[in-house]
Structure formats: C-alpha cells, structure tokens
C-alpha cells in the first residue's frame, strides 16, 4: 500500500518544530556553560593560595574568548599607555584589536598596550568589592579613565586621505569645523560633513567578581558587572547608560571640550518604528521562558557586549606621530 503523501503544511510544521528544538538546544548549551563557569569560580574561591587569582582570571578569560569576535585578542596582566605618557594600573584582562593597532610595547615581560587599540578592560576580583576595597576599584577605574586617545593620524580611506586633527584649524586647542565655500550667494557656514563619529574613544570597563550577595546591587564606576548568583551568572549594566545613543557618545566621544565642535551626534534619519526598541539595552536580554522570569545571562551578555563593540566598530585611527613625539620627548 503506497505511503500517504504528507501535505505541504505538515512539512512546514515539522521544519518549524525542528528549528524550535535547535534554538532551545542552543539556549540550553549557554545555560550549561553558565553553570560550568560558576562551578569553576567556586572551586577557585576555595583555593586559598597565591595561584587562585590567576586561575580565576583564566576562567573569566575563557568566557570572553567564547563570546567576542576573533579579530580581538585578550591579554592578561598588562598596562595601558597613551601618547601623553600616562600609564594605567595593571589590567587583569585587556580585549584589544591587533588588526588596526598592531603595537604592544614591551619592557622585558611587561606589556604596554596603546589606549587606541583597547575595546574592553576587565578587573577580576574575588569578594573584595565592598567597604575599603571600593577605593581600590575606583582608583583602578580612574587610572583607565585618565588615558586619552589622540587624533594625530594620517590614513588612506576609500574616499581620500583622512588626516585626523590636522584637517582642522584650532583656537587655543579647540578644533574648529572648516567653513563651506560661498556658493550661489549663500554665506559660508561650518561644514557639518566634517564632523567625526569618533573623536576620543575609551574602553568598556567590566568588573567580574565572585561575591554572590552584595549589599550594593551595582558597583560603580564600571559599565558592566558580572558575578555568580546561585549556580548561574548575573550581568548588570550601568544605569547611567541605558540606550545605544548614550553608549555611543560615552565610548566614541569621551569628554573633551576641544572636540565639542567636531562631534557627530548619534541620530537616525527617518527612523523606523522599531528603532526605539532596538536602542534600549534592556531589550537585548534573553530568557528561558516566555514569561521572562529566568534570564540566560551569558547569552544576554553575548548580544549586549557585541552590540556595544559594533558601536566602536574599528579602533580610532592610530596616531603614529603622537607616539613618536612621546618617545622623543622622553629620551635621555
């Protein structure tokens, strides 16, 4: 007896059910990965000897290696440097782009990475994240914040040669937009086409710790907090930066009054009705269930962090002359 031919509808239904199972299996994999990480962190916490800190950093490093693009490298125990000669405190994990900024300055086994290359810095702590230890964290964060990128770059782009701050006149250090040419009786005005989407970048600051119950729900001044909560991970984002517009401004236009006139603001021409939803960081969270009670924090972090990295996209163009001057001005 010939087999009954399946309808197109039933085939489509099977395909949909199979796809749903695959998606659920991917979600389950991230849940298992979360549990594995928290288990390893708990094991590290039980090791009361000198290697436990390095072991803990290795665990967090393995997490980031699984969720960020391959174009980024991750180095442990490095220092950041800017072209003014400022040096940060030691950074547990630095996530940086070697494709556009291939420099790591070395002194023996000590590594110094130019601030222009760095997209993310991670401070890995055990439970020392409250009380007097807060000052240590704040001082560490400030040592990163005080570093400044430079616009003294010259690079060939698809539409010409980009000359960084050399393309602008300055008034007491403040860069000014060039004026348009007088045409058809129109008066010259500042040429807004010369505004930059990046003027002074800074890395995302992440605090990873193992204190599951903290009296302070969010630890400033970090952008992202990650820690175990039970057998899962908890990811908290700073309340100061709730949408992509504020993140873009913070990451690509670090506060510098000298660049105020040449900053290109985050805006969309004729935005769709869905843009508002896409801009809110809270909407990049993934849950196990439709009622959104249990978050899959690691999967949320994957989408949230990579969306932020896409706002930076490529590092600010490397200012070779600025670093040449730094070395020459500090010679013997």
Quick structural gist:
The protein has 332 residues and is an alpha/beta fold. The chain is 33% helix and 18% strand. It has an eight-stranded mixed beta sheet, sandwiched between helices. A two-stranded antiparallel ribbon has the order 6-7.
Which structural class matches the secondary elements? alpha/beta
What shape does the CA trace take?
globular
How far is it from the N-terminal to the C-terminal residue, by CA? 95 Å
Spatial sequence of strands, sheet with the most strands = 3-4-1-2-5-10-11-12
Any low-confidence stretches, pLDDT <50, length ≥5? none
Q: Which percent range fits the helix content? A: 25-40%
Protein name: DUF6602 domain-containing protein
Pfam family, one: DUF6602
Organism: Paenibacillus terrae
InterPro entries: DUF6602 (IPR046537)
Topology record:
Layout: H1 8-46, H2 52-67, E1 72-81, E2 91-97, E3 105-107, E4 110-114, E5 118-124, H3 133-145, E6 155-157, E7 160-162, E8 169-171, E9 174-176, E10 204-208, E11 224-229, E12 232-237, H4 244-252, H5 275-279, H6 297-312, H7 320-329
Parallel strand pairs: 1-4, 5-10, 10-11
Antiparallel strand pairs: 1-2, 2-5, 3-4, 6-7, 8-9, 11-12
Helix pairs in contact: 1-2
